[in-house]
Amino acid sequence: MVHLGNTLGLSGTQLPKADVILTNPPFGTAKGGGGPTRDDFTYKTGNKQLAFLQHIYGSLKPGGRAAVVLPDNVLFEAGVGTDIRRDLMHKCNLHTLLRLPTGIFYAQGVKTNVLFFSKGTAENPGQDENCTQQVWVYDLRTNMPSFGKRTPFSEQHLQPFEDCYHANERKEADGNIPLSLEGRLAGMQEVEQCRSDCREDRGEGETRWRCFSRDWIKTQKADSLDIAWLKDQDSVDAASLPEPDVLAAEAMSELTEALCELNGLMQALGAGDQAQAQNDLLVEVLLSFPRAAWERGVMTVFRSLGSGKSFIFARHYDIKWRNGGG
Questions:
Q1: Which of 8, 118, 209, 219 could cross-link 36 (Cys pair, CB 3.0–4.6 Å)?
Q2: Do the Cβ atoms of 48 and 25 come closer than 8 Å?
Q3: What is the average per-residue pLDDT within 190-218?
Q4: CB of 125 within 8 A of CB of 62?
């Protein structure tokens, strides 16, 4: 039987306990506005997803199971968010977390996860404290393609995770897509890329499937479940970046070119007096820089502009130096 009502309102308190809960709580705000109004939640919050999470694990029978799709903020929100995650791991066995690719739920760019947990423990379904001892995390997000209408997310993309999830004995090495799957995945460019990524991970001893102890989550992550370890191939390696003064000079060069273009635009619009006033104001600021800053930054800007462009402050700069200014 299906009931129409607000789970986070009074009607939600009358729902019966469940053996299995599979749900995708709505994102955004409720129709007509307003937040959770139930008074039976241990932790009061205006975050609807955190409120739904409390409802879900509170609605399971002893030994009951749940799989819940939730956005990233539920994994790391501080304050009451930390309290709710801690309560969840206390009363339930949060055994698995699946990091989904970006954008397959709701708007493009929204990051979501699936939390798998059961009430109590396998040995004692009625246990209501210290139920989570370890959490297995599968990263199906890092170095995955962008999914959408042209590249739909399918069951085949989930197959490697399912193999890991249902293994009789979970092993981190199983997070590498095994060669036996090559035939099944042949012809799918996006999965081929995933398979290539995993092979690289295997060579470095990495995997998409890792286990984290409850103690590690508490001491190292302060009970945040925002756990990631794979290196994003699109990320910038800080070790390969230029020196800070070079980056600063490049930024100043780009700003200078923009200022030159704006100056020309204002002149074309007949606002030359306003442009000159702004130039004079900026000159005063630049002339207040110490000599070393000019040498490292502004002279680099002069060189970057080249002979084909003029720097509107060059005349003032030369005068300052001829007069012995610092």
A1: 8
A2: yes
A3: 66
A4: yes
CATH number at residue 151: 3.40.50.150
CA distance 207 to 54: 31
pTM above 0.70, yes or no: no
Q: Is residue 246 included in any domain, yes or no? A: yes
Query: Using one digit for the tens of pLDDT, what is the confidence trace for 66-75?
Result: 999 999 999 9
CA angle centred on 14, ends 13 and 19, rounded to 5°: 95
Q: Under a CB-based contact definition with an 8 Å cutoff, are residues 114 and 100 in contact?
A: yes
Stretch among 51-65, 104-118, 160-174 having the lowest mean pLDDT: 104-118
**Cross-sheet strand order for the sheet of 60-71:** 18-23, 60-71, 112-119, 92-99, 134-139, 209-213
Helix or strand (DSSP H, E) at 227 = none
**Number of domains the chain is built from:** 2
Give the pair of three-digit tokens for residue 16: 């019966």
Domain boundaries, position 225: 10-234
